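[User]
Protein folding is very new to me. Any chance you could explain this protein sequence and its structure tokens? I have pasted everything here:
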Amino acid sequence: MGIIILRMATTSTDWKAEYQSEIDMAEASRLAGNEGRARVCARRAAGIVVGEYFRFHGIECRSASAYDRLKMLLMLPDIPSSARRAAELLLLKVQEDYTLPVEADLIAEARSLRQTLLKE
């Protein structure tokens, strides 16, 4: 399956504010005891990072969905193993009790993905 190309609208500066907003919401949600919302915000932050990575590398994607972007990132053969691991954790489905099947901090994983992919 080839990568489908479609230009994304976010500019190189917009993504930073959007990313920080999602991280801030994730942290606030965690502090309020809403870990489910914290995970959702962390995934959206990671999706923003992946979108900027694609934009920077001229890889265009069909979807603005964080889930789709993370799945597409995993299809790329040359991503660093730490980015692959973070994307895999961010894509984990919750169990019936709304917890992850492994111990993981998705906020930290979103930050790690930013550092690995964008060197920021």
Summary: The first helix runs from residue 14 to 31. The chain is about 60% helix and 0% strand.
